[in-house]
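Journal club prep, shared notes

We agreed each person brings one worked example of a sequence with its structure written out as tokens. Mine is Sugar transporter. I'm keeping it raw so we can talk through how to read the token line rather than staring at a rendered picture. Sequence first:
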Amino acid sequence: MLAAACRIFAQIAPGAALILWACAVSAAEPTRGDPLLPRSQLASTDSPLEAAFSARAGEPLRQFGYDLFASATDAVSAAEAAPGAIQGDYVLNTGDTVLVTLRGQKSFSKRFTVDRNGQLVVDDLRPLTAAGLTLDTLRRDLAATVAATWPSTDAFASLAEVRRIGVLVTGAVHRPGRQEISAFATVLDALSAAGGVDRGGSLRAVRLMRSGGAVMVDLYALQIAGATGNADMPLRDGDRLFVPPLGATVAIAGPVKRPGIYELPPDGGPLSASEMRDLAGGTLRPGRGRLVRFGIGPSGEEATEEIADPDAKRFGDGDLLLIAPEREDRRGEVRLDGHVLRPGPRALTRAKSLSGLLSRADLRPSAYFPFAALESTAPATAARSLRPVDLSAVLNGRDRRQLSDGDTLYVLGTADVDFLTSEAVLALLRGERQPRQDACPGLVALARILAAEPAGPLATGPQARAAATLTGSRTPCPPLFSTVPDLLPLALRHSVLRLTGAPRPGFYPVADGPESAGARETIVESEAPQYELIGHVRRPGTRRLPAGSTLRQALAEGKALKRDVYPLLGIVERYDRRTLTRAYLPFSPQEVAAGRADRALSDGDRIHLFAADDIRGLVKPAESRADSKADDESEPPMLAALLDPAIVAVIGERTVQLRGAVRDPGGYPVADLTPLAALVAAAGGLSTDADPTVAELMAANGTRNAIDLTRDGARRIGPGDALRINPRPQALEARAVAIEGAVRRPGRYDIGRGETLSSLIARAGGLIDDAYPAGAVLTRESERRREKEQFQLQARELERTLALEVEKGEPVKAENVALARQLAAQLRAAEPLGRVVVEADPAVLRSRPALDPLLEPDDRIVIPKRPLTVAVSGEVLHPTAAQFVSGKGAEDYLNEAGGPTRDADTGRSFLVLPDGRARPLALSSWNHRVDAIPPGSILVVPRDPRPFDGLDATKAVGNILSQLAITAASISVITR
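Then the structure, token by token:
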């Protein structure tokens, strides 16, 4: 924690070795290195060849075979592993290590290496010739030699370590150079040791060169047919491997098992389509397919041709083969999809008509009956098209049209229909022609139609005009419109705008809608009296208004409200057709649902209900807005953006402020006079520390009254009032204190208000026999923060002083400027201890209660054991910890440390007492005052500050940092 202070103090007082050591001990923290990114997580990029072929094919293509070296490290590790069980025909050579085991008259088990002379020298035996012999022959020779030397002794020999050989690997590999590998290594092992073949190197023409000539190695044979060929050929010491550049390549794409880029054999000619298909592992589905060749002409142009003969050898360097099935469709089936229980294909022989394809048992709940869509193929153009279908007519048997091969019937649900009036759809109809980047394909198809037909029926028709007045929901795009994008524009073309008689106003598609019926009415609205439920209700929308209907009936006695509706305020928006004015009538949904309030409804009333979370987000307390970020303030709440500004103003005008000990304090809009109990319940209830007997009510007219909620819960308050609920006085502090060291029961203790140190020591069982209360250390968080602020102030003062002296043109040494800046930076980074000087001796505290300190939360008290030393530090010849002797003076301890150095300022020497206090010492020859020095103290001889005469602020900062280091050292010494 004090590393920065220790480094500064080292510059100011380089002789204070003991203090610096103590700082290092007390402030040491484990270091952590930056984790290295695993090689497997590094992003791999395509080679230029892969990028070129992928662009031509329209799909990603990879070079075949190079994944063989993806685990090159594992391959090297396997090659370096122990040899395991070696066959007896293994031929030994120089460098092999043999494990020789004797059992009998002579017993041992040791390893011996075949030396440069080819001999195996075993202890106490004659040298045995080993190089060139098989392991079995060596075993026989060893057994005979041992039997002649030590009768009744059995000899055993096994290969313990295989010799190393050197192989030179060059060419297109990741790590070319000489590779040290096992004598058992093969060509593949050596390439793996070199990091594998680069994607620019050949896998079909690797050359192994040795004194007898050269051998060609084709790694394709190993990966395609499993034939090792020359890839597993054992290597010899001095062999050379060369990987030439990549040769001619071809590529194959389409529905094949292994699409990719393949290298042609070095001496082979062009390949046929059949041979390339075999390279790719065959096609994914049987049957004939179209073979398309993309070749590069002499001028670099790409030519396309259909390959009729799959055995014609037409594919050479740079050619691309694209395979596509001649037919990918199915015959004899129709499909049922969308809002059904079992979507999928059906046999055409069993479902020849729409009524035979679908029954009510196939539908999921909340299916939409007025509209469905049939996708079929037009015989003339062979193009797929969508046509509207009346699902009710199909289920009732009125629509028995015949189906054709490949037809698909799409059934919509109510969620699909609701999306037609979503905000995303309405925004496009209002004129936004660019959908969001994450928009579903249905929205993209709608945007394209609107952009392509700016004067078309969707862009200028009743749907676009109605979109300007509708408020859309924010529901996500249903999967059906992602599967069939054209279904969304089709449903909109056949939609009518229902303002009444539907769960909510919006677009509702019908099979015989405007697109089919031409002049049919596109807006459905009843002339009968009606009202509308808006917002946080179970089924929003427009409903008929019977004579004598009331607000409570409209809310179904509260059953129409959602569970998290805001209970204290709803608004009836009423339009007067005679005066052409609007009125906003507040009401309490809670009171209406309970039957304590009601209101008669009029034709055209709009009843607004709100979610509790929306109201809390709209009416924020002033203190929350002041603490919020600027970007949060710039964006209005979502509810405010959707509501009429007049309704937002009504909500703001009718707010009651609730503060104090409630779970969610803030502003709460109310309809009128509201019971205090209902207001507190809306705020989540009282908090656990609330005192309901001492609440305070501030009325809108400025009068203040004391309230007892236990008696006055039914009292009503209205808009503009403010209620504060006071908390109970806490008997316990929120956080505990810790006591450690020489007490009988150390640990953390909860403290009450007014708790003292002597009380805590008593609760901890008192001090043990060797406790040293004179060296007690009390660290406090509030003091640490105060010291930290002081450090920040000193750093700013130092920088300001330096800037002023530079502006004045005062001569300041460059090294002093650099040092001052370094001191300011390290002063900001220094972490103070927050030590408070206290008296901790229980006997003293009993006799003088005024010295007994009050404790604060998070205090930490350490009672050390009695120390036996006095430390001498600073500008002395040999900083040390001298043995404490009662009556010994400061000069005696200074002499034991070798006396002061030439840079010492003995006139400013001081003594740091065990309890943290400091006092000056008299070390001059004319002053013979005797200072008692208790054990655990530190005698400090500071350095002469002459190098910093030009900057007084630097001297002050230096003193602060040195004192910080000395304090840390003293705590480390006393608590050691």
